[in-house]
Amino acid sequence: MVAVNKDMNILVVDDYQTMIRIIKNLLKQLGFNNADEATDGGMAFEKISAKNYGLIISDWNMEPMTGIDLLKKVRGSGNKVPFIMVTAESKTENVLAAREAGVNNYIVKPFNADTLKTKLTSVLGEF
To answer: What would the mean pLDDT of 99-113 be, rounded to a whole number?
Structure first.
C-alpha cells in the first residue's frame, strides 16, 4: 500500500474566504501543509492546468463557474486528480450529478477534522 504523501499539493476552491481558511486549518491539523486556494472555478482550472495537484477540495456553489462545472472541466481534460466536493446541499440529485461527473467523494457542511479525515482516507487511503 502506498503511503499518502502529506506534502502533495492540494487545491481548496471556495468563493468564501472564511471557508477556505477553515478547510486549510483542518488540513493542517491532519498534517497537510501545501494547500493553494482559488476563489472560483475559472481561477481553479488555471491553477490545475499549471501545477500538479494530488487533491482538489471544491465548494459546489460558486459564481461564475460552479464546483460541478469545474469538476466536469477537469474530468473533460482527462485529469483524474481526486476531487472532493463540499456542499451545504445533501440532495440526492446533487450527489448523483456529482458522481456522474466523476467526483470521488463529497462533504456536507458544516464538518470537522474527523469528517474530513474520513473522506480523505476514502479517497487517498489511510494516513
So the answer is: 94
> For the chain, what is the mean pLDDT?
95
Is this prediction's pTM over 0.90? yes
Confidence of residue 81 (pLDDT cuts 50, 70, 90): very high
For the chain, domain boundaries: 7-67
Torsional class of 65: left (φ above 0), alpha (ψ -120 to 50), beta (otherwise): beta
Q: Read out DSSP for 69-93? A: HHHHHHHHTT----EEEEES---HH
Q: Please state, in angstroms and as integers, the Cα–Cα distance from residue 76 to each residue in 43, 60, 61, 79, following that order.
A: 17, 18, 20, 7
Output the CA–CA distances (angstroms, integers) from residue 71 to 6, 28, 114, in the order listed. Answer: 23, 24, 24
CATH number of 7-67: 3.40.50.2300
The beta strand positions in the chain, using DSSP E, are 10-13, 35-38, 55-59, 83-87, 105-108
Give residue-wise pLDDT tens across range 10-28. Answer: 999 999 999 999 999 999 9
